[in-house]
Queue: 2 jobs
Job 1
Amino acid sequence: MPTTIPQQQLLEIIKNNVPLGFSIVDQDGVIVDFNTSAESITGYNRQEVLGKSHFSILHGSSGTETCPLLQKAIGERRTTIESESTITNKDGDQIVISVTAFPLVDEAGTFLGGVEIFRDVTGRKKLERERKNILAMFAHDMKNPIITSEGLVSRLIDEKTGKLSKKQQNYLKIIDANLHKVEMLISNFLEFSKFESKEYKPRTEVFDICNTLRKVIESSRIEAEKKNIQILIKNSDRPWPIQADAMMIERVITNLLGNAIKYSQPAGAITIDFSEAERDIFVHVTDSGVGIAAEHLPHIFDAFFRVNRETSGTGLGLTISKSIIEAHRGKIWVKSSSESGTTFSFRLPKG
Ligand code: ADP
């Protein structure tokens, strides 16, 4: 590289060659710099935007509202914010950008403004959305034939259409169990797709989560009794009111308790306990089961992740549970060891 180029000029060259949009704003959100890639992403040229409000140019606002990202970077002086954001280009089209925003502070600590570095990810997002839609449509269309087949197989097994040999009965039971597995997978996948597309908004009400637990334990009793597993609720002599979507929270508890039973050895024990902080209620589901090895713990909430493919399941239950808890601004986590079993805990806002 020629060393004779003055530093200022070198910086300009880099700024205008870097394949990332680059925009600097002052303390009031007024654009003071805009590079070549920013011009091609947004359709605006540098001269058109300099001195104008970043918010009115890219977010079509009056200038009093703010860009959520820069607001955080400038207003809250957060170090770095990485996110996706939707902006409007010069033609009026909505484009999705992947952005890194950070505040500009000089050596003396004086706040000067903010920087956004961004790339256009509209095409990638569209492809992702199309892929997800196709999968969801495919799963949806598979559901009806599976349910119809299950109904017909069940009529055959019940000998409603004529006597069957032992061998025919056994084969049909295997077909029935497999159809049931596929149906479960499809239902869970459709639910997972719904959460992924962010279609789901909790319909919250105040209710006692301890009551929900009692209800779920009651409907899990047969499974627990089959394995001679004791289920105990601690601290259940008082209500534990939360503000949440009752049906969805029941889904989370059903999943955690179902797993605790499924991954417990016969004659094991499951304990459910509660605790609270200023704003939250905590629920802890502890089993004395097979545990989860440390190497698997970071992946346990990932979609389709399963430690052991020999047990029945879809690997989507925990992913769905995490989406539900996070949609309530809560948190779910796990502690486990192969010696002493597993505890899944979550926290939700108090009612
Ligand atoms: P599924 O149970 O349908 O496979 P989940 O998403 O509910 O799917 O769980 C993912 C994986 O996490 C399970 O396959 C299992 O390996 C592990 N897991 C979940 N809960 C427990 C538990 N209480 N004890 C041991 N392993 C568990």
Job 2
Amino acid sequence: MKESNRGAFASKFGLIMALAGSAIGLGNIWRFPFLAGENGGGAFLIIYLALVALVGLPMVLSEFVIGRSSGLDAVKSFKKLAPKTKWYYTGYLAVIIGFVLLAFYSVVSGWAFRFLWESVATGFVGQSAADIKDSFHSFTASLWGPMLTGLVFVGLCALIIAQGVEKGVEKFNKILIPLLFVMLVALCINSVTLDGWGEGMRFLFLPDWSAVTFQTFLDALGQVFFTLSIGMGVMITYASYDKSKGNMVRSKVTVSILDTTVAIISGIAIFPAVFTFGLTPTEGPELVFVTLPNVFAQMPFGWPLAILFFGVLSIAAITSGISILEMLVSIFIERFDMSRRRATIVTSLMTAVLTVLCALSSDIFNFFDMLSSNLLMPLCGLLVAIFVGWFMDKKLRGSTFTTNGQYATAIYPIFVFLIRYVVPISIAFIIVSLI
Ligand code: PHE
């Protein structure tokens, strides 16, 4: 397929919304609040923000440099930029991560769909704390429920992707991401009116350094990778659709700020409510699926608020899911010379099989999460950092980063320093700590 046939984003706004759509996901609304809850609230936030600036941003920019300078997918990019080397295996690693992560992601997104449905149907009204806990556990442990909802999620992503880059990915992100912001802000405004507002704010923003351990840094770094969609070629793919020749640093900083803002706003929407009803915020992954429904069951106007919250969670999940599937589809189109429709069908069927496995066994579910988020994404990120920092053609790297010397020239040396030393050393820490 010719480069010009690959598709492209039609507008700058579309590009930013698509990038934000990928970044903003379950990571912000489901994962960030419970990690902050477990790791000292404000202390976690400070460490996380520092890591976004020192590791996250340089990583996103590196993937962007690769995608923009090659204009190709995650495998072919390396073939073009480093011909006759084995660097393109990094792209194949991204493919493996894509399938594994998407399967895991589809199952959790399916839970979000199920809770959205429950919110619309009952709003959790009249359910006791024990009922809610039971219903979550019996649903996740059941045979058909998680499988069906996970498959519905994969199907929805496939339907959007099949429409193409501009008419599918871009169009849906341009509608869904602003909608998500409006809904989240509405939830926040409601939070301000609650009795637990002060306590929630203190919890989220006041650092409790006694809860910080070495594990906190690892969790924060893992979260930075997950939330910014780093280490699996998604940013390479989206960057290759960016033909704007605009200021890359500015758009990536904007996206990282949007992403972090959503994580913080989610915390603001969640914690005051949790404290208002005397619940504990350190509930791990159950914070959103058990604690919050309890809150909605007791709160005035809990019903519409529950619909809003699980609506936000479902939208965030879809826009991220499509970015992972798009990365896979773009590679299949090139590698097997397939039409977009066929590539979408093949990749989503493969994902569907893995999703079913993940939904059926909690061991597989946990293994997929651990394998992708903790091990393979950092590994792929490490390879990208080493490639951009040490192997890529320096002239091309510089001219892509600065758009031929037009923008961000003062930041470029800082970027090079971070990507050569700070980023690889930080990632190596994650990997070594796991071995
Ligand atoms: N960034 C998404 C989130 O926060 C997850 C994701 C990871 C999406 C990797 C694409 C690639 O939920």
